[in-house]
Each structure stands twice: as C-alpha cells, then as structure tokens.
Structure to design on (254 residues):
C-alpha cells in the first residue's frame, strides 16, 4: 500500500512539481491545499501519512498551519518547503512541529531524501 | 524533472500573479486595505521567485528576490510608502512581467540588473551576482 501525501502550496506549479516527484517515487497524492486554513481542514479529513507545507500562503501561513495540525495530531509528519533566505522561518516551523525541510528550487533527490527522513 | 512541461504552467500562473500584484500596487498607492496590499504583493512576488528559481529563469528569480527583500522592509514598516517607492515598485512590476515573458520564450533578453541594483539598498549587492540559485 502506498503512503499518502497532502501537498500544501498556493502555486499550482509547485503542487504539480512536488506531486510529480512524489508520485514517481510511489506515493499517493490524496489531497492538495492552497491556503493554511485548507491545509488544516484537509489534514483532519484525510489523515495523510505525510504533508508537504509551503511557508508563505494566503489566509493562514504554513507555520501556523503546522502548529494547528500538530495540535490535532502530535504525530503528524510535516515537511516544510521553504525558499532561500527563510532560515529563521524554518526554525520557527520546526519549533511549531515540522519534522524537516527542503529548500526551493526543488531537486527531486533532495525532496525524496527529506521525505525519507521525515517518514523514517 | 523535465522543466519544459512546467513552462506553460509557470507562464499562466506568473501572469495571474503579476496581474494581482499590479492590482494591489494600485491599492497600496491609494492607501486602502491596510496591510493587505503589501502582504498580497509580497506573496505574489515570493511565489514567482520560487517558481522561476525552479525553472532556472535566473533574471526573473533575481529580480523577484530583490523585490521581495524590499517588500519585506515595507511590510515591517522599515521603508515608508511614498511616491518614489511607488514609482520604483510599478517599474519593477512592469519589468518583472517582461522578464517572465522573455524567459519563457527562451530569449531572456531583458536586462534586470539595473533594476536589481535600484531595489537593493545593500552595499556589495552589486558585486554579488545572483549565483546561489544555480
């Protein structure tokens, strides 16, 4: 049975790319979210094995979304997707409960390594 | 990941963001909406930065990176919104749009460096070309 993933990013481009990388590696994409609020709602509804979370999103940002998801499920496995120069935000996200992070621009091997660390 | 298949997606989404950025710039200039226009412009530029860096469109990534840095200062209240800043932001958004179209068409003929230097108040930024995305 393949592991399930919820992809959270406000850009379709990024969701498609992360989805392609993970699908090719055998994961099942069970949902996508465009905002932090959606991310929290869909997590509760879908209970995926893994969440990829963008930091900058409308509504509720990725860090607050991680906080909400971790409050709901302390064992949630969230991988942050950050851009260059967001080190401080990454630290905040890890404190909020994220398990690891990858930095854009994405390289498939880096994404998959981080996913393995999170799920390991 | 084959970049070619993402170019169309990049173009469509970037155009939407540029349009939203221009809309929010007008709001910012009129002083309506409180913090929201700056926040919206920041998010749009940030998204374009992430996508363009992924595509290897260095000029677009470089320009959006500097624009994002400046907008972050505006967001934090460390840079005041005045006519000079608005003029700079409108010109930067216009150039961003042209750089996007140019990058996707494969020509990449738009020179963003003068604007990158104008956006960046940091000494030394001119000596540090935008290599770290590669």
């Amino acid at each position: 049975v393949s592991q399930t993933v919820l992809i959270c990013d406000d850009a379709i481009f990024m969701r498609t790319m992360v989805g392609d990388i993970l699908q090719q590696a055998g994961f099942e994409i069970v949902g996508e979210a465009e905002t932090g609020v959606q991310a929290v709602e869909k997590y509760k509804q879908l209970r995926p094995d893994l969440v990829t979370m963008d930091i900058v999103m409308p509504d509720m940002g990725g860090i607050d979304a991680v906080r909400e998801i971790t409050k709901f499920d302390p064992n949630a496995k969230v991988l942050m997707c950050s851009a260059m120069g967001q080190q401080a935000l990454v630290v905040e996200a890890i404190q909020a409960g994220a398990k690891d992070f990858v930095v854009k621009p994405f390289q498939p091997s880096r994404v998959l390594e981080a996913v393995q660390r999170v799920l390991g | 990941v084959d970049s070619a298949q993402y170019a169309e997606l990049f173009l469509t989404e970037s155009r939407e963001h540029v349009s939203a950025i221009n809309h929010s710039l007008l709001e910012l200039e009129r002083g309506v909406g409180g913090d929201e226009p700056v926040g919206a412009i920041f998010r749009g530029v940030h998204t374009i930065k992430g996508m363009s860096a992924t595509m290897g469109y260095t000029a677009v990534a470089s320009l959006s990176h500097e624009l994002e840095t400046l907008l972050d200062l505006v967001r934090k209240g460390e840079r005041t919104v005045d006519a000079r800043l608005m003029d700079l932001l409108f010109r930067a958004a216009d150039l961003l749009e042209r750089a996007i179209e140019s990058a996707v068409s494969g020509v990449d003929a738009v020179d963003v460096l003068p604007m990158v230097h104008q956006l960046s108040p940091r000494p030394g930024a001119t000596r540090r070309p935008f290599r770290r995305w590669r």
Observations:
- The interface with chain A takes residues 1, 6, 9-10, 13, 40, 42-43, 46-47, 49-51, 53-56, 65, 69, 132-133 of chain B (CB under 8 Å).
- The CA atoms of residues 102 and 108 of chain B lie 5 Å apart.
- The first helix of chain B runs from residue 4 to 30.
